[in-house]
Specification:
Blueprint: H1 3-16, H2 22-36, E1 37-42, E2 45-52, H3 55-69, E3 74-79, E4 87-92, H4 97-103, H5 125-139, E5 140-145, E6 148-155, H6 158-170, E7 176-179, E8 184-188, H7 191-201, H8 205-225, H9 231-254, H10 262-273, H11 279-285, H12 292-313
The structure holds zinc ion.
């Protein structure tokens, strides 16, 4: 999966999360508007609109506006000429800009722009996650390729960027800021932190993907250190092992290995510890030893469990 589609898939998954608490609905929309909101003048009336190129995000913005304002948003779609095949969606919040902007924390009650994040949105943990998700949907980016881990939130002002850093800090994530041409980017570089960030925003699918990529790199490094081995053969073993190890890491993160059925638990731990071992070698490590086909069968069950957890989330 390339970077573009990984980022879009992540947003797609985040956009499908069904938030029900009114506090979080407001916070998610506030985050989204903070990142992707614009003032638009139409027929002498200033309106707030949210712009996105991602159809899933557009749908989400539309639903959030209805939930928060109790009214239907106007939706406009425009084919962009410069970027082939990409469409720009504009979700227009009903009513005047001043009311919408005040409600979403873009301005204070005197109508002055607020550059940071309104404290009230960050009081509860559920809301902090929702706000972060909104920000990411609006102007976030993630890359999960084996050679470049990167997750970022773009912020319009330095103050905003600092607030995002503080917000991530509350979840134990150390982010940094870099100045871009037209904005400030708050970014995470470590795969573990990126995985944590995706998880706290509620994405499980991309997390699985990221786990697999991370494991792939780990295993590849290990292979490079091995000498006198039949590379071709090893690659085959490794490729099959990879996905399994990523899935097991995912199970471990989501439900914990200790909650697996007993006959799968030990094998799961061994697979994590020895990603380069063949099925036969793995079987020999288990007490009492298992046949190759038995190991294969159990790994398949683990794989099924990982998929089930992922689907439950969706
Ligand atoms: Zn909440």
């Amino acid at each position: 999966m390339n970077t573009q589609s990984f980022s879009a898939a992540t947003k797609g998954e985040l956009a499908r999360i069904k938030e029900e608490r009114p506090c979080c609905l407001l916070c998610e929309l506030a985050g989204l508007a903070k990142a992707a909101g614009r003032v638009k003048n139409e027929n002498n009336t200033a309106r707030l609109e949210i712009r996105t190129e991602n159809p899933a995000v557009a749908r989400k913005a539309f639903q959030l506006v209805r939930a928060v304002f109790g009214k239907q948003a106007a939706l406009f779609v425009r084919q962009q000429r410069r970027l082939r095949r990409s469409k720009l969606y504009r979700i227009c919040v009903p009513g005047e800009f001043t009311q919408a902007a005040l409600k979403l924390g873009l301005t204070d009650r005197f109508g002055h722009p607020v550059s940071g994040i309104r404290r009230a949105f960050l009081r509860r943990e559920c809301c902090r996650r929702a706000y972060l998700r909104g920000l990411f949907l609006g102007r976030g980016w993630v890359s999960g390729t084996a050679f470049a881990y990167h997750l970022e939130f773009a912020a319009a002002s330095k103050r905003s960027a600092e607030d995002v850093v503080a917000l991530l800090g509350q979840f134990g994530l150390k982010a940094r800021i870099t100045a871009r041409k037209n904005c400030f980017a708050v970014y995470l570089k470590k795969s573990g932190a990126i995985g944590d960030c995706l998880r706290l925003m509620g994405a499980a699918g991309p997390l699985l993907e990221l786990e697999n990529t991370r494991v792939f790199r780990e295993v590849k490094n290990r292979i490079n250190r091995l000498v006198n081995c039949e590379t071709a053969n090893l690659n085959k073993t490794v490729e099959a092992a990879l996905q399994r190890k990523g899935e097991i890491g995912f199970i471990s993160a989501r439900i914990g290995l200790e909650n697996l059925p007993e006959e799968l638990r030990e094998l799961a731990r061994l697979r994590l510890a020895h990603p380069e071992a063949s099925l036969k070698e793995l079987g020999e490590m288990v007490r009492p030893p298992l046949s190759k086909s038995c190991v294969n069968h159990r790994l398949r069950r683990l794989s099924t469990i990982a998929r089930q957890i992922q689907q439950e989330k969706n």
